[in-house]
Specification:
Blueprint lengths: L1 H14 L7 E2 H4 L1 E4 L2 E4 L7 E2 L9 E4 L20 E4 L8 H11 L4 E8 L2 E14 L4 E5 L13 H27 L15 E5 L15 E5 H8 L3 E3 L5 E3 L1 H4 L5 H6 L20 H14 L1
Parallel strand pairs: 5-7
Antiparallel strand pairs: 1-8, 2-3, 4-5, 6-9, 7-8, 8-9, 10-11, 12-13
Length: 294
């Protein structure tokens, strides 16, 4: 069984460029290995168990519509591990039993996160490391480890788990959702080269409202992302760009002139869907930080 699980992880990482690019359902519904065709993602089920093996090979989180809270926002335990809910309320449901078997054998699986209808960002490998029947959920880690009670984890371990979840889960999904909303272009200059674009936070991770959701995000090229983070440029709640006054007075060649200064007083480009546009209250709070830094 380990060989087929590893083959599935390898296959998904190849077609998704190690989880950097989304995939569509038809790419991952099935894959071939050793002359057999295995089901890798079920359109109806959150937990996918191929008929040939007793273990689950993937789990799925459905796409969250714009304006709704992401499904993982309330599923992080105090130990920093992500929780995945059972299928239904019966711990012995065949899907739950298959995922439990995956945990017992310490096998790697794929987690498909919906970022649009029929489009997923795969995270692989992940491991089911704990079973919590009282809460109808499993705990999931992004590297293999033996499960342990929350009370046995020290602060450093919990912080490490939080950081891994952010790096492997929240930030990649945040990036894909922001890129989709902004049609893969910089909100300031409309640059469309994906490798030169970042999903920038309006309010940072450390802020109580700094959640990785599209309403707290901006698609910015690397120059404008750095300028935003360093308070060289600010974005008002009415979407108008302001450039730091001393930068406006600075002479430093064409990049500064055309790349920064000429955008002073212009408007950013925002998503067509109103629910995916920057939240004004977040912009206002961030803009006052910019003003106070001037």
């Amino acid at each position: 069984m380990r060989a087929i699980h590893q083959a599935a992880v390898d296959y998904v990482n190849v077609i998704s460029c190690n989880g950097e690019e989304p995939v569509v359902f038809d790419q991952v519904a099935k894959f071939s290995w050793n002359g057999q065709v295995f089901g890798l993602l079920d359109r109806q089920q959150g937990i996918t168990k191929p008929r040939q093996i007793p273990t689950a090979i993937s789990i799925r989180t459905t796409f969250t519509r714009p304006g709704a809270n992401p499904p993982y926002s309330d599923k992080i335990g105090v130990d920093g591990l992500v929780r995945y809910k059972y299928k239904g309320t019966d711990p012995n449901n065949f899907s739950n039993s298959a995922l439990r078997a995956t945990m017992d054998h310490k096998l790697p699986i794929v987690w498909f996160f919906g970022i649009d209808s029929g489009t997923y960002l795969p995270i692989a490998p992940v491991y089911v490391v704990g079973d919590e029947p009282g809460n109808l959920q499993f705990s999931v880690a992004f590297e293999h480890r033996d499960s342990m009670p929350c009370s046995d984890l020290d602060l450093d371990t919990r912080s490490y788990n939080d950081r891994i979840v952010s790096q492997r889960l929240h930030q990649p999904i945040f990036r894909q959702q922001v890129m989709r909303a902004y049609s893969t272009q910089c909100a300031v200059c409309q640059l469309r080269i994906p490798k030169l674009l970042d999903a920038a936070h309006i309010l940072p991770d450390s802020h109580p409202k700094g959640r990785p959701i599209v309403a707290n995000g901006l698609s910015l090229c690397k120059i404008h992302h750095a300028g935003y983070d360093e308070n060289i440029i600010g974005i008002r709640p009415d979407l108008i760009i302001e450039v730091k006054p001393d930068i406006l007075k600075t002479r430093d060649g064409p990049m500064l002139l055309h790349g920064i200064k000429e955008f002073h007083g212009s408007s950013i480009t925002v998503p067509r869907n109103p629910r995916e546009r920057p939240e004004p209250s977040r912009l206002e709070e961030r803009f006052w930080s910019f003003r106070n830094a001037v």
